[in-house]
Amino acid sequence: MLTVGLFVPCYIDQFFPQVAIASLQLLEKLGCRVVVPTNQTCCGQPMANSGFAALAAGCDKNFIRNFAGLDFIVSPSGSCVLHVKEHLSDQHAPTEAARIRNQVYELTEFLTDILKVQALTASFPYKVGWHNSCHGQRGLHLSSMSELVAPDFSKPARLLQMVDGLELILPQRVDECCGFGGTFSVYEEAVSVKMGRDRIREHEANEVDCISGVDMSCLMHLQGILNRQGSRVRILHIAEILNARS
């Protein structure tokens, strides 16, 4: 039995705990022993993205302290996983930092590449619009990029196709950014909101029941716009759908 450390991003812990719970339950259903370190905190991505990477040193040390020695680290967040993969370091524990960088996975990546899931017991009889998050697609290569002449693939879509009753509907501009971009949505609010509205307009035209993705940060941005527009479309992280029983 694989021992998996569940890395819960701080915004999921504070605002969307149901996503962490769904991730834990899903991993356990698939035969993993899941450990949730209670002293884990932010991975340091907000500081690094704002140009203050040196201030994230404490986050790095704490991350290594919490996840050292585990077979794998899995998280329901592509952007946080990419940050750890590319930036986790500690001059006092370089070997363990390097090991963790190689053993940390986004949830759908782990299900597809490590567990090699071929079937799920989930049921979700709704129309689901899919949002490709930039970090997951272009950093972790969870799906192909439309501008490249290359084979088409999507690890999250492959998993969603295993869900009974689910109708997956892709937007025409399948890999366009939603406009969140972390602190970009604060410093360039107007541009961020316009990009988010453009994304939502296409999903609503497809008459989806919900929009899903691998990053609650992007989905949180879209949810805020949907709520302000009084839309009936809801937001669900892919872990909640893969763990659902109607």
From TrEMBL:
Limits of the Cysteine-rich domain: 4-84, 128-223
Top-level taxon in the UniProt lineage: Bacteria
Signal peptide limits: none
Pfam families from the UniProt entry: CCG
Name under which the protein is recorded: Fe-S oxidoreductase
Species for this entry: Flavihumibacter stibioxidans
